[in-house]
Amino acid sequence: MSLEDASLDIVPGELLAVVGENGAGKSSLMNVLYGLYHPDAGTFLMEGKPVRFKSPRDAIARGIGMVHQHFMLVPTLTVAENVVLGREPTKRGLLDLDRACDEVAATAKRFGFQLDPRARVDTLTVGSQQKVEIVKALHRGAQVLILDEPTAVLTPQESDELSQVMRGLVAQGRTVVLISHKLKEVLGVADRVAVMRRGRTVAEVRASETTVSALASLMVGEGSKGAAMTGVPAAASGTQEAATGPVLLEAKDLRATGENGRPALQGVSLTVRAGEIVGIAGVDGNGQRELAEVLTGLRKLDGGEGTLLGGPLAGLTPALAKARGVGHVPEDRLARAVVKAMTVEENVALGRHRQPPFARGPWVDFKGRRERTNQLLNSYDVRPPDPTVALQALSGGNQQKVVVARELDADPKLLVVVQPTRGLDIGAVAQVHARLREARGRGAGVVMVSLDLEEVLALSDRVYVLYEGRVTGHFTREHLDERELGRRMLGAEASHG
Amino acid sequence: MGERTRQVLPSVLSVLLALGVCWLTIAFTRDADTATRAYLQMLWGGVGNWPAFLDGGSSTTVLRPLGESAMKAALLTLTGLSVAVAFKVGLFNIGAQGQMIWGALAAALVGAHVSLPGVLHVPLALLAAALAGAAWASIAGVLKLKRGVHEVISTIMLNWVAVSLVDNWLVIGPLRAVAEGASSITGTAEILPSAQLPRLLGESSRLNLGFPLALAAALGVWVWLSRTRSGYETRAVGLTPEAARAAGIPTLWRAGGAMALAGALAGLAGAVLVLGTEGRYPGSLGAPYGFDGIAIALIGNNHPLGAALSAAVFGILRAGGTRMQLLGVHKSFPELIQGFALLFVAGRMVWLALLARRQKRAQAQGPAQAGAEVPRA
Amino acid sequence: MLEVFHSLLFSTLDAAPALVFAALGAMLSERAGVVSVGVEGMMRTGAFCAAVAALVMPTPLAVLVGMAAGAGIAGVHGFLSIRWRSDQVVSGMALNLVAMAGGTFLLESLYGPNGTPAITQLSRWNLPGLSHVPLLGALSGHAAPTYLALTLPFLFHLLLSRTPLGLRLRAVGDKPHAVATLGLSVPALRWGAVLGGGLMAGLGGAVLSTAVLDRFEQHTPAGLGFMALAAMVFGRWTPLGAFAAALFFAFGNALRIGLASSAPWLLDLVPQGFLLALPYLLTLLVLALQGQRGHAPAALGTPYEQESR
């Protein structure tokens, strides 16, 4: 990620939003502003005077605070310890934890947060952890608060609450810089919007004087692609009526335990047929990930039963799932889908490395593997089309193309995809979406977990909503209603039907 | 720089630099002339005194030193492979020492107490050693895979358990050789002649079957890792375990298998030591072969053939080390060279960064090209 | 019986300091997130330099030289693993090998194979009030390191749990990026912990050649550094835990040596080798029971990179 010639004016007492595509340089710019990265060239003026931040310490001293997208909290420490870290109150040289707790409680109260300063951070919910982050910055006297994609992990309700918090801070005379790519949300809360594209700031507009589509065109540089960016279903799947085939997956009352040892699935039932894309919507952390893991054999089922491609769901292993024809595009590509230090062709073989054309008996079939890889690299337009380079040398979008190519090349009967376009640029997003539709067209069933509601709306024939490990909503394409979907994502009971 | 060069260069530079630094230590504690002569002695001691041989000396002047070097190289190759194989599944095997101890003991027992014709006796003793080493390594493997115990800690602990149990109990207690007459022997009973590794060059050199065995092991490991399905799976498990699991690879078996293989290789090193040179389990192994293995593996860039190559280099230096005593330099001096070489390999980021900077500067003057990348460990 | 116990306790307190210091040193470094398998090499260097220095200066000063030497080795470790983000285990093992062979080489070329000439040991202190009290009397008559070893763990405990620096060290071992975003320097904290750990390991080594023995011997510290690692793990990476584990291991050792001389028949039933293996077996057992990551700092062994370009 790089910046070139980015400039930004921050006016005291306003809420400035910085928007841009993934990789446009928003986070980089903020990290420079916060003293974490150092610019190669350029200047910084604060109140008219040039300043230079060598480290976040300088930024903090100048009243700048930052809430990072990935929380910067020490999980084993308490809320108070996290907040005072680096400027700890002492009594005779020793930590004064009581005072720390009092101070933190006072700060939290002043800004209207409910926080137990003595709670260990790893016991808190994501929303509370974010509050700890904000309190941490405010406790250091931040006048300018930078929030990097703060709503990515929040429920819509928590997001609304955060909006109020941000407006409240501005009302108290503080300045808030909000980084986001959710344009609607931005327009609802910001005073001014700065747009970044490819490391440059390309526009600064007043929020009241612009629209979502105007911002979108500024972000992508040309009007035509704006629709794709904001997720307006440009090539909505509704145009081609889904011809649903036989049932591929029939699951009843699935139960599973999550990474943290807490129940993640508490009785999920769902059906997937051939030739449809089934979206799984929900706020992050409500069991979607675990559901995908259960379907691909990566997570053990605690209870419930189901039939997956002619076999029982219980006792499924990744190898068994593969053998039955389950394809998988996992969320965390680098951790789950690829071996980044291996070559592209070795990655294309991954998972199918025991069968032709990738193997001959116990031996690797180098020739067959090379041929098949070359074919796939061509048809998926992977760049560079070189099967022998390490996968990590490819861009994120091209890596994802390799994963999608590999999984679809196996001609899966059921494809489980999780956040398939996260972090990709527009071109790659469009291609991945097209490939998913193509798979459906070939008669595969697709289960798509996405946190991006717009993506779910754009692609799904049916949508299940998960909330706290239960299905709280089930919509078919004709009855999709974004507001209602949002309500169900928060656990609201069905208001009708 | 080609890919191959980029892999090999840091190791070569590290060894050269270590040779230089160690030369300086002798030059400082003694004088430059002594240092140079000691190095020459080390070289003649390792590869043989070729000038003397070509002047009409007997073939022993080169065969004997080469045989000694090959013996050392065999042990280093096997322990180096042990460490390298474990590395391939992302495990740091600091426990080659303990695995080798059990392997050596098993070989000594089978060699002394089972009577069989030579064609069967040697393979059986080797097999016993490999199994013993594999079993000991598997303890660390199971602790890691089933209980999440970090293998660095567990293998260190297991080394000391092995030393304590074998050297301080079994070998001086229940398994001690029965004293014959007045002479009491340290260690276990002597192995039968049928269990001795055959010498390859007659009496003029102690070169025995251990060396080709070690080379075959290196070649075998290389072929396995690079050309077979299970070798591919093993590498995938080592590089990205979660992705391997998601791909249906039995990760626990692959990781456990690699750890067991690592133990088997270290156990074989023990067998080569006992069946090839010692003739019995001595009072103790007498050298930290397992730690040597770490150095050999890393200097060899964790490549099986690289390990064999670095084992050959250090086998020569180590065998030549004994000749340094002629000049009053301790015979363990080559171990210092080896230690420094490992240190420089560990610090190869420093090298590569400096080299990349130089290259960049050169390129800034020449035609524009992609800058050299600094690989991360 | 009391007599026997008294002498056991006495020899435990004599032998424990080296282990305690090294375990504390290793713990300090690891709590900040830097693996410390090089502690054996640091001890060896500390022991060697202290013994050599004691030939030309008062022994207490020589101990300081030993500490500095330990910190010197730790400095190389820091340079490689903090500054250059090398693999911490590799760097530590490399330093062990260098210290092992380097110690032998220097010893041989400077003093011959029998170790350095004898030096004046650290003087032993008699605590007049205590000498005749049963059991407590075992506290009297040790050299200064013993008393230091009985107090330092508590100071370390205070440092880690009750001071701002301790809070920061714990934080940097668990989540360095969080520390960095607060404007604190991760490298500085880690450097401090690694060098402090080196000082402690050097002290542990120096104690071996100035209080336990009266010279540097070929094999010093003969694996004591690894036993210190065991004590640290056994003590769950806490100062008091590591202290208790080190005392326990030292006591076990004293017991073994005591048994060998006073009740050899017992050693026929429980072989010495088995007793020698016991500390390591126990550590393995504890680790096996704790499971998963145990109590190791979350970021242990992970090099810190500020910018992920």
UniProtKB/TrEMBL annotation, chain A:
<dbReference type="GO" id="GO:0005524">
    <property type="term" value="F:ATP binding"/>
</dbReference>
<keyword id="KW-0547">Nucleotide-binding</keyword>
<dbReference type="InterPro" id="IPR027417">
    <property type="entry name" value="P-loop_NTPase"/>
</dbReference>
<dbReference type="GO" id="GO:0016887">
    <property type="term" value="F:ATP hydrolysis activity"/>
</dbReference>
<feature type="domain" description="ABC transporter">
    <location>
        <begin position="249"/>
        <end position="493"/>
    </location>
</feature>
<dbReference type="InterPro" id="IPR050107">
    <property type="entry name" value="ABC_carbohydrate_import_ATPase"/>
</dbReference>
<feature type="domain" description="ABC transporter">
    <location>
        <begin position="1"/>
        <end position="223"/>
    </location>
</feature>
<dbReference type="InterPro" id="IPR017871">
    <property type="entry name" value="ABC_transporter-like_CS"/>
</dbReference>
<keyword id="KW-0813">Transport</keyword>
<dbReference type="InterPro" id="IPR003439">
    <property type="entry name" value="ABC_transporter-like_ATP-bd"/>
</dbReference>
<dbReference type="InterPro" id="IPR003593">
    <property type="entry name" value="AAA+_ATPase"/>
</dbReference>
<keyword id="KW-0677">Repeat</keyword>
<dbReference type="Pfam" id="PF00005">
    <property type="entry name" value="ABC_tran"/>
</dbReference>
<protein>
    <submittedName>
        <fullName>ABC transporter ATP-binding protein</fullName>
    </submittedName>
</protein>
<keyword id="KW-0067">ATP-binding</keyword>
From TrEMBL, chain B:
<feature type="transmembrane region" description="Helical">
    <location>
        <begin position="152"/>
        <end position="172"/>
    </location>
</feature>
<feature type="transmembrane region" description="Helical">
    <location>
        <begin position="12"/>
        <end position="29"/>
    </location>
</feature>
<keyword id="KW-0812">Transmembrane</keyword>
<keyword id="KW-1003">Cell membrane</keyword>
<dbReference type="Pfam" id="PF02653">
    <property type="entry name" value="BPD_transp_2"/>
</dbReference>
<feature type="transmembrane region" description="Helical">
    <location>
        <begin position="73"/>
        <end position="94"/>
    </location>
</feature>
<feature type="transmembrane region" description="Helical">
    <location>
        <begin position="336"/>
        <end position="356"/>
    </location>
</feature>
<keyword id="KW-0472">Membrane</keyword>
<dbReference type="InterPro" id="IPR001851">
    <property type="entry name" value="ABC_transp_permease"/>
</dbReference>
<keyword id="KW-1133">Transmembrane helix</keyword>
<feature type="transmembrane region" description="Helical">
    <location>
        <begin position="207"/>
        <end position="225"/>
    </location>
</feature>
<dbReference type="GO" id="GO:0022857">
    <property type="term" value="F:transmembrane transporter activity"/>
</dbReference>
<feature type="transmembrane region" description="Helical">
    <location>
        <begin position="255"/>
        <end position="275"/>
    </location>
</feature>
<feature type="transmembrane region" description="Helical">
    <location>
        <begin position="126"/>
        <end position="145"/>
    </location>
</feature>
<protein>
    <submittedName>
        <fullName>ABC transporter permease</fullName>
    </submittedName>
</protein>
Automatic annotation (TrEMBL), chain C:
<keyword id="KW-0812">Transmembrane</keyword>
<feature type="transmembrane region" description="Helical">
    <location>
        <begin position="269"/>
        <end position="289"/>
    </location>
</feature>
<feature type="transmembrane region" description="Helical">
    <location>
        <begin position="61"/>
        <end position="82"/>
    </location>
</feature>
<keyword id="KW-0472">Membrane</keyword>
<dbReference type="Pfam" id="PF02653">
    <property type="entry name" value="BPD_transp_2"/>
</dbReference>
<feature type="transmembrane region" description="Helical">
    <location>
        <begin position="225"/>
        <end position="249"/>
    </location>
</feature>
<keyword id="KW-1003">Cell membrane</keyword>
<protein>
    <submittedName>
        <fullName>ABC transporter permease</fullName>
    </submittedName>
</protein>
<keyword id="KW-1133">Transmembrane helix</keyword>
<feature type="transmembrane region" description="Helical">
    <location>
        <begin position="191"/>
        <end position="213"/>
    </location>
</feature>
<feature type="transmembrane region" description="Helical">
    <location>
        <begin position="94"/>
        <end position="112"/>
    </location>
</feature>
<dbReference type="GO" id="GO:0005886">
    <property type="term" value="C:plasma membrane"/>
</dbReference>
<dbReference type="InterPro" id="IPR001851">
    <property type="entry name" value="ABC_transp_permease"/>
</dbReference>
<dbReference type="GO" id="GO:0022857">
    <property type="term" value="F:transmembrane transporter activity"/>
</dbReference>
<feature type="transmembrane region" description="Helical">
    <location>
        <begin position="32"/>
        <end position="54"/>
    </location>
</feature>
